[in-house]
Amino acid sequence: MRTIGYIIQKEFIQIFRDKTMLPIIIIMPFVQLIVLVYAATFEMKQIDMVVVDQDLSTTSRQLISKFQGSPFFVLEGNTFSMDEAEDMIKSDKADIVMVIPNDFQKKLMSGETSAIQLIVNAINATAAGLTNAYSSYVIADFNKNILTENINFIQPIQTRSIDVSYSYWYNPELNYKIYMLPGILVILVTIIGAFLAALNIVREKEMGTIEQINVTPIQKYQFITGKLLPFWIIAMAEFAFGLTLGKLLFDIPIVGNLGLLFGFAGVYLLVALSLGLLISTMASNQQQVMFIMFFFLLTFILMSGIFTPVESMPDWAQKVNIINPFAYFMRVIRMVLLKGSGFSDISYEFYSLLIYASLIFSLAVWRYRKTA
Amino acid sequence: MTDKPIIKVVNLVKKFGNFVANDHLNFNVYEGEIFGFLGANGAGKTTAIRILCGLSHPTSGELEVAGFDVYKQSEQIKKNIGYMSQKFSLYENLTLRENIRFYAGIYGLSKKEINIRMDNLLENLHIGHLRDQLIGSLPLGWKQKLAFSVAIFHQPKIVFLDEPTGGVDPITRRQFWDMIYQAAKDGITIFVTTHYMDEAEYCDRVSIMVDGRIEALDSPAGLKQHYHAENMDEVFLKLARAS
Amino acid sequence: MKKFLGFVKKEFYHIFRDPRTLLVLFGIPIAQVLIFGYVVTTEIKNIRIAILDQSKDDVTREITQKIISSGYFELQQNLESSEYFEDIFKTGDVKEIIVFEPDFAKKLGKNETAKMQLIADASDANTANLIVNYTSAIIGDYVQKENKLLNIPMQIKPVVRMVFNEKLKSVYMFVPGTMALILMLVSAMMTSISIAREKEMGTMEILLVSPLKPAQIIIGKVIPYVSLAFINAITIIALGYFVFGMPINGSLTLLMAESLLFICLALSLGILISTIANTQQMAMFISLFALMLPTILLSGFIFPIENMPVILQGISYLMPPKYFIIIIKNIMLKGTGFIFVWKETLILMAMMMVFIGLSVKNFKIRLQ
User: Fold this and answer.
1) Rounded CA separation A137/A132 (Å)
2) For residue C175, what are the domain limits?
3) Which one-letter DSSP state was computed for residue C334?
4) Which of A66, A101, A107, A230 has the fewest CB atoms below 10 angstroms from its CB?
5) What is the DSSP string of A289-323?
6) Using CA atoms, how far apart are residues C23 and C186, in angstroms rounded to an integer?
């Protein structure tokens, strides 16, 4: 135990002595946390619309102003030329073009169905889907108005309607930031902890200092533990600091038990750091470690469901996520923080990670060779 | 020096693929002696020293260090030896005191012991003022001397020195050898590799390696007599030419 | 010149010698494109829902059927009471609960308004918003079809045409994004690390006293990565084209030229980082932090820039990948020519000049 203590002491001295690295591992992640949380939203704030009004009637003008009145749509321009309208989509000046045909009002007032054309830039499929949905609402709403206004002219008809009410639990204002912050925090903490740990051993290999340790009677598990704990402590501290920042700046809800969350974070970081150490026991230089870590990290992050729901992924990908430590923590941190899930709700994830941690840690100890 | 062998090597062979780095080495090192392990670069010195320290596995042969078997008891051996590698291996971004505390701590010395021995060391070398200097800021000569001090800090039975004086000036080399003599006087067996032939004169016994084999093993005086040479340089040249 | 070629050869050898590094370098782009194409879709699929049907009549069954057969949703369980809503959300599987009020069909038939409630787990606000929108669209569709049978006059029928991506594939977004991400990271991270490595090992000084000029050293170090990154770019485009059916409507030559420009820009950024960083660790952390998340988040790769707060939109103007993504989308999907992307191209060139200028300045300061 004392031996491990000496390693930890030495690592901490080295970490805090390197004045150029300190800001990079302490300040940079949090600047990113604060800035990037704002970026991760699908919420549509502004849909740029161009109108080709070939009808120029009262009704068509009413429809256009209906769109202008909507909080989502901004009228970017009018044109009579279809070519010009399409160019505006091509040059990204418009997200949607609405073409109102010249018989629009005439057909409507004679009780017929009138078609209008919507051209949506669909390169971003999600945004296009939402644009389509929002414009359909506006049009349907407008349609209802027309019907009620002109109800005298036509025979009263019984229409069927379903009133759909929504409630958004745990986050009634649909604030995406409180969902993204924990996710981004997990990424940052993992990068710091896992990379520092992984680069550490291999750096000693490159510098030759590891030989001096290998001729001592130190036990393999002592060495690996001593290399793991300092970075585990740093990662946990950064995790705590990040959560505090989230609470202060973004008012993220902390519904669940913090002790539970930190307990889980601790186990998670054991897995992440052990993976880093395992990779570094196998590599011979820092470059190799970085590329291999980078590859796993990027893959694991994207598959973890941080930006997109895991449920929408194909079955095989969800199976791959069994070995993805990110996926477990990404899910649990959000459950505990936002929904207040308790231990019984996350026990499966907890025990899975615990087994995972002991497995990878043992593997790292086993793979570490005191002889070359 | 006693007649008790502290290192026994019988038919040590080490192969890297087809390349034979150590070709049936046989020698004993006796308790308390300064044993010189000479040879040109690439003759197989470092390979042998790494095997004896447990940093590398032999291909075949029987080896015993400090009474323990190299194959089965390498961790026992490690408790009883010190090692100073060719590559400088103290932490440049730690101070002298921190380096010593770290290595001594790993060897399981108590805090009190560490402090007493550290004070002695600083006093003997008159370097109390270097105590809190970063190792990286010291001149190479000092670094080497300190690396040696760290290698014997836990008072091992044997210390292995792999080219300890590479790249330092003659005066520092002389001082370094004074430290080696002092350690030997304190009862530590010294196993030292070098390619400086003048240093061979300082050893009790010398083995000379050429292309992975030990070509000669005797006291410096004995070797000079046997090869009718004035100094060790000539001995070495004659051996190298013969092979 | 001969010395220079020898140096370039050595650098090539250094990279291509290690099979693990090679595997990663060529494996990364392939794996990332496949992951984005198959896994990380923003499309909604198989979202688990629970239903509390207090009416259990033909209409509610029909609507339920419609919702489930849409492919977006998967019925996880039928509920009997609202008592366990909280528990269901807490265990995390179910994302939406749909509630039908009692006597649903009766009310609908009697010309009253029938009530439904959609309760979404909005801890993931983005997904909750999409799910609720999709569900209401399905319900709206049902109502419209029912009403059509009633023959209501004065209907406005929107005819929607999705241009550039008729099938609304999310991979169209991700291929350009992945390309920007991979080229940025591979080029910038690798150059910065490999130059920092020479500094750390002390071999940079040996190179600097060699007869090679500093510029030659840097160019020599960079050339292998240019070719590597270019192969990566081709791999990504080929995967997008052959595996995911992403069209290349514009000029392939222009696309390649723009990719090369972007690679050079990323490399110059890598050189700039290496003039700041003294160790490989530092080079890596700077590259990773300065490049990875910002490239994913601030370039319009996954999240549209127009939706971001104004300050972030401002910052996004400084992100080279943003312009590259615009360029690729224009060439590949919209099939536009150089006249539509000359502005972005100029900006990328200017950025590259700035990076090179700054590197030279830093390098001179170091030598003094």
Assistant:
1) 9
2) 2-40+169-367
3) I
4) A66
5) HHHHHHHHHHHHHHHTTSSS-GGGS-HHHHHHGGG
6) 13
- pLDDT bucket at A340, cuts 50 / 70 / 90: confident
Report ipTM (2 d.p.). Answer: 0.84
Q: Is residue C188 part of a domain?
A: yes
CATH number, residue B179:
3.40.50.300
Answer yes or no: is C119 within a domain.
Answer: yes
Query: Contact A217/B107, CB-based, under 8 Å?
Result: yes
Instruction: Name the band, by pLDDT with cuts 50, 70 and 90, for residue A151.
Output: low
Contact list in A for residue C89 (CB cut-off 8 A) is: 169-170, 339
Given a cut of 60, whether residue A155 has pLDDT beyond it is no
Q: Does C310 map to a domain?
A: yes
CB contact under 8 Å between B87 and A211, yes or no, is: yes
Whether B and C touch (3+ CB pairs < 8 Å), yes or no = no
Three-state secondary-structure class, residue C164? coil
User: Distance between alpha carbon A330 and the CA centroid of its chain, in Å?
Assistant: 9
Cβ of residue A212 closer than 8 Å to a chain C Cβ = no
Query: B130-154 pLDDT, tens per residue?
Result: 889 999 888 888 888 899 999 999 9
pLDDT in tens, B64-78: 999 999 998 888 899
Instruction: Find the CATH number of the domain harbouring C116.
Output: 3.40.1710.10
Question: Which secondary-structure segment (H or E) carries C75?
Answer: strand C73-79
C42 with A108: Cβ contact below 8 A: no
What residues of chain A lie within 8 A of the CB of B57, using their CB? 371
Contact B125, B148 (CB under 8 A): no
Residue A36's SS3 state is helix
* Tokens (6 digits) for B193: 């590799």
Quote the CA–CA distance of A294 and A198 in Å, as a whole number. Answer: 11
- Chain C contact probe: residue of A126, A137, A264 with most C CBs at under 10 A: A126
Task: Please write the tens of the pLDDT for every residue from A326-337.
Answer: 999 998 998 899
Task: Check whether residue C209 and residue C293 sit in a common domain.
Answer: yes
Q: Read off the pLDDT of each residue in A139-149 and give the average, rounded to a whole number.
A: 83
CA of A205 vs chain C CAs: smallest distance (Å): 13
Q: Which residues of chain C have pLDDT under 50?
A: none
Q: Which structural domain, as residue segments, surrounds residue B92?
A: 34-42+81-242
Residue B58 belongs to a domain: no
A211·B83 Cβ contact <8 A: yes
Contact B79 A3 (CB under 8 A): no
Provide the domain count of chain B: 1
Domain limits of chain A? 2-40+176-367, 47-149
**Residue B221 within any structural domain of the chain:** yes
Q: Does domain A47-149 have CATH number 2.60.40.1220?
A: no
Q: Determine the residue type at C26.
A: F
Does residue C106 sit in the same domain as residue C217? Answer: no
Is-contact A141 A66, C-beta < 8 A?
A: yes
CB C110: neighbour CB atoms within 10 A? 12
Percent of chain A surpassing pLDDT 70: 97
DSSP state of A324: -
The DSSP secondary structure of B35-64, one letter per residue, reads EEEEE-TTSSHHHHHHHHTTSS--SEEEEE
Q: Does A24 touch chain B (CB under 8 A)?
A: no
Contact A139 C172 (CB under 8 A): no
User: Same structural domain for residues C6 and C117?
Assistant: no
Q: Are B198 and B232 in contact (CB under 8 A)?
A: yes
Residue that wins the pLDDT comparison between A2 and A280: A280
**Considering the entire predicted model, what is its pTM?**
0.85
Q: Which two tokens stand for residue A315?
A: 């079955």
